[in-house]
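Section 3.1: Structural characterization of target chains.
Under the original work plan, the team committed to producing a structural model for every single-chain target entering the pipeline before any wet-lab resources were allocated. The record below documents one such target. The sequence was received from the expression subgroup and is listed exactly as submitted; it comprises 433 residues.
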Amino acid sequence: MNRHGDEPDAQRIADDDANERFVATNLRRNFLANFGHGMLGMTGFRLVNAPTFVPAYVFMLTGSSIMVGVSQAVQQAGAILSPLISASAIEDKVRILPNAVRTGMLMRVQLLGLALTGWLLSGPWLVGSILCFLFLFGYFNGAQRVTFQMLMAKVIPLAQRGRLQGYRNLAGGAIAAGLSWWAGSTLIANNTLGNGYATTFMLSFLLTSLGLMVLTVLIREPDSHRRRAPMTLRARLRELPQLLEDRSYKFFLVAQLFSAAGRVGVPFCILHAGQVMTLDGPAIGLLSFAFLGADTVANLIWGALGDRSGFRQVFLLSILAWIGGFGLMLVAGDQSGFVIAFAALGAASSGYMMSAQTLVLEFGAREDIAMRLAISTTAETLVAAIGPLVGGVIALSFGFASLIAVSIALLVAALSVILFLFGDPRHSRQGTG
């Protein structure tokens, strides 16, 4: 019997062989499904997640750096518990796709809400609705990170995940970069349909919805033969300390937490830039283009490097790029300097997202992938929820430059953990893919 005592080893081997054949047979179709979903979905979501549009929108409405921090914090707070709930809901299921589609639809509804309230409401009601929809967007985003990464792990072999993410992020990022420039210089500058930001969010809703349709139509998911026995969420949570007995995964999680804390300065960079240069619609579009454009180009490099050398190296280099981007932000004296700084931050962001989400799939047993994803997402999000609130206070008390310096120090701590405390799981016997 295997270590779970639920099936003979021979049956386990036969199920794994059948799964590998299914994945190989449907690889091209599933590659296209994930590519189409990622390209269109990430195009729309990046307009919301880029550190430009939402912070600038909230600051325009409130004039408060504290409220910018609150808006980022409530979005992250929404994702604190949803990964654990999502993982518990899917790890005993034969198929993940139905849950993924429901979660994806509910996440996209929040973009529709941001658009409609922008057109229909004003004053405190508008600000309150934005915070509400950002919270729900964060909640379903946290759940989606678990379900869709788990789905990708089922249908895409480990050796091709970097290539897939590189191609889809290149295509989606290229569209998002051009779209962000156009949205800033046209939709926001001209206040299209009475609220250029609301129009931008509606565009995001339409693109991401189309991406989900592509995934639903094309993907072919194999049955899960190696699953956890059904148990309550409370009982599953009591088992979480066992996952942290893996030393490499534990220190990977520590590095994630320092990285999440180090990103506290990112949403305030656009406000720091506004103190040095004129921050109008075209300028916001240009800086968004720099961030998303660099994110786009870097994805091909990160994906190829991850497939060839392992995603620990991508993780390390992305932290270095973040430190460099923040350093450039401190010394930039004009628009050109900020364009370069935002480009560095964009390249770092894509490398971090790709490496962190892929590395966590490579630790420990396959049956525990969903819960490891949930632990990492929840822990990272908890820090990311607190960070913007603390960041807003630091920015208000000491200025944006001091906040950026704090971010650099935290990222240096993350870099130290990566360098000295955990190795690449792909090059150890712990990685299972």
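The longest helix spans residues 123-155.
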